[in-house]
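User: Hand in any protein.

Assistant:
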Amino acid sequence: MTAVRPVVEVFADVCCPFTHVGLRRFVERRAEAGRLDVVLRVRAWPLELINGHPLDATFIGEEVDEVRRQVSTSLFQGFSVSSFPSSSLPAFAAAAAGYRAGNDIGEAVSLHLRNLLFEEGTDISDRRVLERVAETYQLEVGDADRSAVDFDHAEGLGRGVVGSPHFFTETGNYFCPAALDTSRDLSGHLKIAADPAPFDAMIAEAFAPRA
């Protein structure tokens, strides 16, 4: 009998910088723990649909600058506001096509798309970019994959998703466990507070031995 691999689900926006931090940290901790059997299933939490308009590139750029300055100097090296995608929906569909091919491929596509956006400054709404991604993973992206975005959104609402990213282990759930809490000081500058405890708790649950 083939063992069922543990899955950590993440409802997240592909253009959310806090998700990029959380996923990268998860992958790093997974490698350190030798738990490559645990797979990420990154579900669509499309803020573009929730808010009624695409994310604002300038605001995301401000978040990226502050995360890079206050939290992680090693990430977002190639990010560019000028190449921020006009819509997240085509990239969500590409990720959904990856998951139709299997969780490992879906995870790889989800991480690849975020790396293109946040580390290489690539517009992941560009049709040519997404065609290259699909070719790399031998995917065919169709109408069913776009519909999967709406399905994830509806399921996320039913499961009480708070925002992006919201992680679900087998035994618990954690909104933005990297604890990148944002606020503004009296001068209007964005402040980001990082607390490792919630993320460590989520990791402990995700990698706990299974009965």
Notes: Strands lie at 7-12, 39-44, 166-168, 173-175, 181-184, 190-193. The CA atoms of residues 108 and 137 lie 9 Å apart.
